[in-house]
């Protein structure tokens, strides 16, 4: 019994000491010296090209974080803009290494489409936006209205489910891209538009001619957990993507930022020592250098820094953290223990 207890106590240490076998995706990323990341073609705050043509946003930052973890350099990313029609094909075909573009995680995408979910980096919900002049104060007032929506999205399915559940009729106006949907809405072709509430806020701030003339209705008709996806069959790569996100969340909880991460390596806190690679073994477990998380935080920052930079009160989007706050501040962001 004493021998069994000793072995059981040693298992976590043995697991951390064993190196992960490099999967084909990581091998491919290392061979080309570049991460290929599938992103949204243009949603402000998440992934959109700036005046220099460089992608910026929460999802773009996460792509850079993966590159920092896997390659030690956050700049070694090639961003591939994808649409609602091409995003899953790009991942399935191997055109991109990871999809990080406002993708809702669902059962069918996990199973029949053959993807692995790698954490949630934004908790959202589907909403509606309407002109303020229409005096629409609640979603139920959209009975008999025309509503712009994107094809092949969870938004299109949710709209139909919601209308049946509420026993009202809406007329979907299906447009092939976010740009087309926004143009149709502004031209008056539809009475309202629907998609994730965060995207509505981004569109109102960056794409509408008079943002203050439009209101986002208070109801949320769905749960939309958004996060990165990778292909089935490469668990090592899924682990790298998942734990990169977890490290960014954990860093915020521990108060580790881009500005103080080097100083924090001197901390005596064992949790910080494990995260920053001072205590060895956790990089080896992922098939990465021991300082992988240190590089993520030093080059990109923690989750809260990325959120504030692109979506928070200091950004044009001005979103409250809400559900995307840390678990100990009333939100849902919770990192699994790094042990």
Write the layout of secondary structure elements.
Elements: H1 2-17, H2 24-32, E1 35-40, E2 48-49, E3 55-56, H3 58-71, E4 77-82, H4 87-92, E5 98-99, H5 107-110, E6 115-117, E7 122-124, E8 126-131, E9 146-149, H6 154-166, E10 171-174, H7 178-186, E11 192-196, H8 197-206, E12 214-216, E13 224-226, E14 229-231, H9 235-254, H10 261-264, H11 270-275, H12 282-286, H13 292-299, H14 303-310
InterPro entries: Bact_solute-bind_prot3, Solute-binding_3/MltF_N
Family: Belongs to the bacterial solute-binding protein 3 family.
Signal peptide: 1-22
Provide structural commentary:
The chain is of the alpha/beta class and 339 residues long. The chain has 14 helices and 14 strands. It has helices at 2-17, 24-32, 58-71, 87-92, 107-110, 154-166, 178-186, 197-206, 235-254, 261-264, 270-275, 282-286, 292-299, 303-310, and strands at residues 35-40, 48-49, 55-56, 77-82, 98-99, 115-117, 122-124, 126-131, 146-149, 171-174, 192-196, 214-216, 224-226, 229-231. Strands 10-9-11-8-12 form a five-stranded mixed sheet, sandwiched between helices. Strands 4-1-5 form a three-stranded parallel sheet. A hairpin with a 5-residue loop joins strand 2 (48-49) and strand 3 (55-56). Helix 3 packs across helix 9 and helix 3 (58-71) packs antiparallel against helix 13. The protein is globular, with a radius of gyration of 21 Å. The model is unreliable at 3-17 (pLDDT under 50).
């Amino acid at each position: 019994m004493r021998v069994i207890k000793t072995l059981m106590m040693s298992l976590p240490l043995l697991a951390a000491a064993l190196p992960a076998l490099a999967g084909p995706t990581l091998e491919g990323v290392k061979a080309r010296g570049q991460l290929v990341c599938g992103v949204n073609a243009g949603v402000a705050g998440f992934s959109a090209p700036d005046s220099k043509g460089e992608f910026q946003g929460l999802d773009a930052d996460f792509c850079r974080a993966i590159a920092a973890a896997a390659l030690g350099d956050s700049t070694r990313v090639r961003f591939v803009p994808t649409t609602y029609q091409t995003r899953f094909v790009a991942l399935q075909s191997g055109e991109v290494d990871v999809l990080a573009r406002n993708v809702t995680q669902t059962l069918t995408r996990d199973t029949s489409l053959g993807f692995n979910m790698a954490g949630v980096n934004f908790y959202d919900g589907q909403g509606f936006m309407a002109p303020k002049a229409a005096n629409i104060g609640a979603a139920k007032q959209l009975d008999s209205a025309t509503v712009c929506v994107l094809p092949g999205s969870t938004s299109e399915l949710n709209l139909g489910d919601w209308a049946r559940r509420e026993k009202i009729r809406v007329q979907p106006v299906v447009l092939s891209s976010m740009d087309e949907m926004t143009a149709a809405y502004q031209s008056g072709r539809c009475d309202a538009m629907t998609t994730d509430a965060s995207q509505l806020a981004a569109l109102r701030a960056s794409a509408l001619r008079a943002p203050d003339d439009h209101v986002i209705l208070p109801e949320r008709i769905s749960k939309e957990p958004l996060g990165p996806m990778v292909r089935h069959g490469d668990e090592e790569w899924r682990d790298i993507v998942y734990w990169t996100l977890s490290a960014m969340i954990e860093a915020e909880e521990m108060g580790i930022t881009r500005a103080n991460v080097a100083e924090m390596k001197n901390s005596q806190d064992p949790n910080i020592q494990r995260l920053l690679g001072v205590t060895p073994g956790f990089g080896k477990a992922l098939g990465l250098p021991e300082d992988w998380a240190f590089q993520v935080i030093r080059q990109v920052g923690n989750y809260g820094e990325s959120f504030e930079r692109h979506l928070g009160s200091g950004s044009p989007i001005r979103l409250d953290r809400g559900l995307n706050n840390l678990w100990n501040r009333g939100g849902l962001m919770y990192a699994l223990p790094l042990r």
